[in-house]
Specification:
heterotrimer; A alpha/beta; B mainly alpha; C mainly alpha; A: alpha/beta; Rossmann fold; 4 domains; six-stranded mixed sheet; 19 helices; 20 strands; globular; B: mainly alpha; MetI-like fold; 9 helices; 68% helix; transport (chain A); ABC_transporter-like_ATP-bd (chain A); ATP-binding (chain A)
Chain lengths: 554, 298, 343
């Protein structure tokens, strides 16, 4: 890309007036989008689900799903009009001019082929080299994306690699055809937070070495602020605001941008306080001296298991974990996948047995309870699952779902229960009109509110929340977190909050425990742990929270 | 599991962030229209077949057993839609009157397979452990013997009556039902909404009735429809081989078998009755797929 | 829920510590699978024994066809038969004698011909093997061809037309396909002889007859599998590399979609054996199917039992081979856990 001396080089990507429509939809998913990425520039495309950002990204390389159609507009890469190219010439654009880093690395590599082969294929699609040379280039790429023994790794299959390693392979594939533009579509979704940072750093490094332009599609304004020079905000199929990253963050013009900014956990370090709209009854403030309502004492859980290669082994999911939670306060367990945080939560919620150790709720020891003995405790401990869609029976109406605990405990008559459901829905901020809907007709945030209403219907003193907001959009996330804070202030419920995201945790919890590989490596008041982390792993987690830069490359 | 990001990959992107449109609001696509016309046609075919089975006299005036020898081996015409056979019997009438036997046997066969298969499957899926293993091994054995052979063995022993043939054919379906039901029960039992229901304090039997049974019955119903099609084919194959109602009584398979000897001279004796069987099986399978899709959506 | 299921369910949220004990080898896996197969065969034998010898109040009367002829058979003949088959002895002794006989490949003698059952079955086998083998080959070619083309083509019309065949194919009665083919190609067009077993010309029609239902089943399963695989993100990755469509479908989609077809192949071999009963009857061909039909008609119980056991052996062997092929096609499946993943 050598421009003439006078004129500026053509933009790496130019999108103008683009419209995309899905078959059967009554309006366009992308409506008149204009977008420019200049050579060597990193632009972040920010939006929530349904904003059309991924549709836009797929339209750029003409890989829209069946049923989606570009109805108007133009896309050009350097000087090539993408939308009018023949399929044959389009192949040179894909991979050769635009490299794609896909959304979910765990499912984006072909499971039945060795990764070396998948890289070689990408190399040979765009370079006229023989097999041996291509293999050499592939191994070089593996080394560049941070693999230690490329020759060994090249012979491995995707399932033998971790999610982060798979994303590195995919980054290698994206760079294999020496593209001018990298299209990174939510490149870190599904990855652990520390791995997310490493993957983004890796992309940054390669981009800087080669001067590649980047279109970074993300839902996370924090990531955008940290990585991009310019930010484009999409909402409901349209670009609502775009501009220099630092300016846009410090002086957002559009109300949606302001809302997004306010919601982004990484940009909002303070703990949420209860909104004052509701009268606050005299709940005793959680004093540190209060007797613990939940006590977890040297709890362990191990499973016998057979490894993929046939060896028998023992999985130590949780080892010797101890903590206490005072009544009416929030304790957060933070950790990445494999840390044992979910297993711990499930033991407390009696969905999982502890191998050893003691869990006490109030005065009742719940470890060791079997069968019918657990049932009385279920009135005291309720759990909110991570995915609100799968935890609601798809065939039931909201009315039946929310009333289920009341029915199970024979509380009230049918009419009374209906009245209570309406009250509960109002309390979690849902209109009474949803009462006859089924989960499929609700949005993600509404579903999680229904799940919360169901759990609260029997007024449990202890609520176990397993990643309750991680499947939700950022702005919805903020609303649900606020709801949880308000409800706690109002009802005095004790929360055990499970999360992978320290940025979320610092908004909601009084105390935090950091878990890694089944052990609790650090615990203490949230503010103290965040300010002065003792354990190296806690520091790594804190480092992984994106921080806005001034727009200049680090 | 720390998947953090809402997905927006497929065509289900809803433009309005608040509430996805309800069923009625979605626009009807041409493919959907085509599908529904096909389904309506299939339902019509099944209704006609059921009519033949229940009230054959409404559909034909000819006697299925006693023919008019003068009219033997006539090609299809206005008077004899499907022509006549070597005894001058009206083939359409024999087809219509044979429907009751063929259909009853097939339905009984599927009912037998469904009931026994569901029992085995629910017990295996619910009990787990050695009971599940034992049941599933028995099911393996049923699968290891080709169903037609199994049917032949059973009719050898039991005889050729409707119920005997139904059990013979139904036994072959037991294995399929048991496997599916077990898989469904296990899937639903492991689902988060069952766990959530137990978690709010609902008792197990109630969970089973309110959550597990309704959510696992859809795929089983779809399979039942598909198995009816398979049973019609199996029953008519047995009848074709001579294991059905004894002769002058009409039955679909034996009707085709009778026409075999006139293949060169009277094509209608085999072709037209066969087409009726094909149409009904196609229609039943079509409905089965529609049922499966209705549940597959979720 | 077993502990292992729980562990699998819990997914990656655990740490793993490997204990060096209990490494299972391929030979051990094989032995285990063969043991399972032997169990299935034993159970199949027991089942047929129970059905054929215990269920009827008097097997001898069935063998002598008393029920049908309505006349009384010679009582001496009946007694002789009873003594020969040991029906005068306790059931458990009969069972044990039969079982030891089966283990020595001695399945008794045919009542109809007096020859050994094994000899009868072996004699009838070759033509059926030729027929079923060629039909299987044709079914794979047709089924894979139709499904792949339907998934590969970008023309909606062609795709829809192709996808009409598999549901039609599974709805056709085998005997009717045979008769229609005979009518058209033997009687109307006179291209091939109608009956007999005289080389290729008489093989074509039975082969097509037997192949169509299996081909349709393969095409149905493969088409569904191809469509679902083609929507997988790794296929998008392949497209995004800039690969030609032929390579994306041939190299990435087909390989991943093949597993369910393997399962269908495993079960369809039994279906082909059963289909040969009808096909050989329609085309008046000699073979195992014909032997089955004659033996059932003559209520030649030892031969019927022998054929059932033979088909169970075929099923067990074919499915063992299929199980061993899974890990070859999909590296995620190891022979150690013996688990099949349905896609």
């Amino acid at each position: 890309m050598t421009g003439t001396l006078e004129a500026a080089p053509p933009p790496a990507l130019q999108v103008s007036g683009l419209h995309v429509r899905y078959r059967g939809a009554d309006r366009d998913a992308v409506r008149g989008v204009d977008l420019t990425v200049r050579p060597g520039e990193t632009v972040a495309l920010v939006g929530e689900s349904g904003s059309g950002k991924t549709t836009l990204a797929h339209a750029v390389i003409r890989l829209l799903p069946a049923g989606a159609q570009i109805t108007a507009g133009a896309v050009s890469v350097a000087d090539d009009p993408v939308l009018t190219l023949s399929e044959r010439r389009m192949r040179h654009i894909r991979g050769g001019r635009i490299g794609l880093v896909p959304q979910d690395p765990t499912v984006s590599l072909n499971p039945v082929h060795q990764i070396g082969r998948q890289l070689v294929e990408a190399v040979r699609a765009h370079r006229a080299v023989d097999a041996a040379t291509a293999r050499g280039i592939a191994l070089e790429l593996l080394a560049q994306v941070g693999f230690d023994h490329p020759e060994v790794r090249a012979r491995q299959y995707p399932h033998q690699l971790s999610g982060g390693m798979r994303q590195r392979v995919l980054i290698g594939i994206a760079f294999a055809g020496r593209p001018d533009l990298l299209l990174a579509d939510e490149p870190t979704s599904g990855l652990d937070v520390t791995v997310q940072k490493a993957v983004l750093d890796q992309i940054d490094t390669l981009v800087h070495e080669r001067g590649t332009a980047v279109l970074l599609v993300t839902h996370d304004l924090g990531v955008a602020a940290e990585r991009a020079q310019r930010i484009v905000v999409m909402y409901d199929g349209q670009v609502v605001e775009q501009g220099d990253a630092a300016e846009l963050l410090s002086d957002p013009q559009h109300p949606y941008t302001r809302r997004l900014l306010a919601a982004a956990p990484s940009l909002r370090p303070a703990r949420l306080s209860p909104s004052t709209t509701r009268p606050r009854p005299d709940t005793p403030a959680p004093a540190p001296a209060a007797p613990p309502f939940l006590l977890v004492d040297r709890v362990s859980r191990s499973f016998p298991a057979t490894l993929p290669d046939g060896r028998r082994s023992i999985l130590h999911a949780v080892r010797d974990v101890s903590f206490t939670v005072p009544a009416g306060s929030t304790f957060a367990l933070v950790g990445e996948s494999g840390s044992g945080k979910t297993t711990t939560a499930r033991i407390v919620a009696m969905h999982e047995r502890a191998s050893s150790g003691l869990v006490r709720v109030g005065d009742t020891p719940i470890t060791g309870l079997t069968g019918g003995g657990k049932r009385p405790v279920r009135r005291v401990v309720q759990m909110i699952h991570q995915n609100p869609f799968s935890s609601l029976d798809p065939r039931w109406t909201v009315q039946r779902i929310v009333a289920e605990p009341l029915r199970a405990w024979r509380i009230g008559t049918r009419a009374e229960r209906t009245r209570q459901v309406v009250e509960l829905l109002d309390r979690v901020g849902l209109p009474a009109s949803v009462i006859d809907r089924r989960p499929v007709e609700l949005s993600g945030g509404q579903r999680q509110r229904v799940a919360i209403a169901r759990a609260l219907s029997i007024r449990p003193p202890l609520l176990v929340l397993d990643e309750p907001v991680s499947a939700l959009d950022v702005s919805v996330q903020a609303q649900v977190l606020q709801l949880l804070v308000d409800l706690q202030a109002e009802l005095g419920t004790t929360y055990l909050f499970i999360s992978h995201d320290l940025a979320v945790v610092r908004q909601i919890s009084d105390a935090v425990g950091v878990m890694r590989a089944g052990r609790l490596v650090e615990a203490g008041p949230t503010a103290a742990v965040l300010r002065e982390p003792q354990h190296a792993y806690t520091r790594a987690l804190i480092d992984a929270i994106p921080r806005p830069t001034t727009g200049a490359p680090a | 599991m720390t998947s953090t990001v809402p997905r927006e990959r497929t065509g289900t992107v809803s433009p309005a962030p608040a509430t996805p449109p309800s069923r009625a609001q979605r626009r009807v696509r041409p493919a959907t229209v085509r599908r529904q016309v096909g389904l309506a046609l299939a339902i019509l075919v099944v209704l006609v077949a059921v009519g033949w089975a229940l009230r054959p006299a409404w559909f034909t005036g000819y006697d299925p057993i006693i023919g008019v020898p003068l009219d033997k081996l006539q090609a299809p015409s206005w008077n004899h839609w499907f022509g006549t056979d070597h005894l001058g019997r009206d083939i359409f009438s024999r087809m219509v009157h044979g429907t009751a036997t063929s259909l009853r046997t097939s339905l009984l066969a599927v009912a037998f397979g469904l009931v026994v298969g569901c029992l085995l499957g629910v017990v295996a899926g619910y009990a787990g452990g050695w009971a599940s293993d034992a049941i599933m091994r028995v099911v393996d054995v049923l699968l290891a013997i080709p169903s037609l052979l199994l049917s032949l063995v059973i009719v050898t022993v039991l005889g050729y009556g409707t119920l005997d043939v139904a059990i013979a054919v139904g036994l072959g379906a037991v294995a399929t039902f048991a496997r599916l039901v077990r898989a469904e029960v296990v899937r639903v039992r492991r689902s988060a909404y069952v766990e959530a229901s137990v978690g709010v304090g609902t008792r197990w039997p109630v969970v089973l009735i309110r959550h597990v049974v309704p959510n696992s019955s859809g795929p089983v119903l779809a399979l039942a429809a598909l198995e009816i099609g398979a049973a019609i084919l199996a029953v008519s194959a047995l009848s074709f081989l001579g294991y059905g109602s004894p002769l002058p009584a009409p039955e679909w398979g034996s009707l085709v078998a009778e026409g075999r000897n006139y293949l060169a001279s009277a094509w209608w004796l085999t072709t037209l009755p066969g087409l009726v069987v094909v149409a009904l099986v196609l229609a039943v399978n079509r409905i089965g797929r529609a049922v499966g899709r209705e549940w597959g959506d979720r | 829920m077993t502990a292992i299921e729980t562990a699998l369910l819990a997914g990656p949220d655990e740490t793993v510590e490997v204990s060096p004990r209990g490494r299972r080898t391929l030979t051990r896996y094989l032995l285990g699978r063969i043991g399972q197969g032997v169990f299935v065969l034993w159970a199949a034998f027991t089942l047929t024994f129970a059905l054929l010898y215990l269920l009827p109040s008097d097997p001898v009367s069935i063998m002598l066809n008393i029920g049908d002829s309505g006349s009384f058979a010679d009582p001496e003949q009946a007694a002789a038969l009873r003594a020969e088959y040991g029906f005068d002895r306790p059931v458990i002794v009969q069972y044990w004698q039969q079982l030891t006989g089966v283990l020595q490949l001695d399945l008794g003698e045919s009542i109809r011909t007096g020859r050994a059952v094994t000899a009868e079955v072996l004699a009838a086998l070759p033509p059926t093997l030729v027929l079923a083998g060629s039909a299987l080959l044709l079914a794979v070619i047709l089924g894979v061809g139709v499904a792949f083309l339907a998934a590969y083509t970008q023309r909606d019309g062609l795709r829809r037309a192709l996808l009409m065949f598999p549901p039609l194919g599974v709805s056709l009665p085998t005997f009717w396909i045979g008769l229609m083919l005979l009518q058209i190609f033997s009687f109307e067009l006179g291209w091939v002889p109608a009956v007999g077993n005289a080389g290729l010309s008489t093989l074509v029609l039975p082969m097509v007859t037997l192949a169509i239902p299996t081909a349709a089943a393969i095409a149905q399963v493969l088409a569904r599998s191809l469509f679902s695989v083609s929507r997988q993100p790794y296929v998008q990755t392949a497209h995004a590399k800039g690969l030609p469509r032929t390579r994306v479908y041939g190299h990435h989609v087909l390989r991943n979609a093949a597993l369910p077809v393997l399962t269908v192949l495993g079960t369809s071999v039994g279906g082909l054996l059963a289909g040969s009963v009808v096909t050989e009857t329609v085309f008046s061909r000699p073979g195992l199917g014909r032997l089955t039909q004659t033996s059932v008609g003559a209520q030649d119980i030892p031969v019927v039992q022998g054929i059932v056991l033979f088909s169970a052996v075929v099923f067990v062997v074919v499915n063992l081979v299929v199980d061993l092929l899974y890990p070859v096609l999909d590296p995620r499946i190891s022979v150690h856990d013996g688990s099949r993943r349905s896609v």
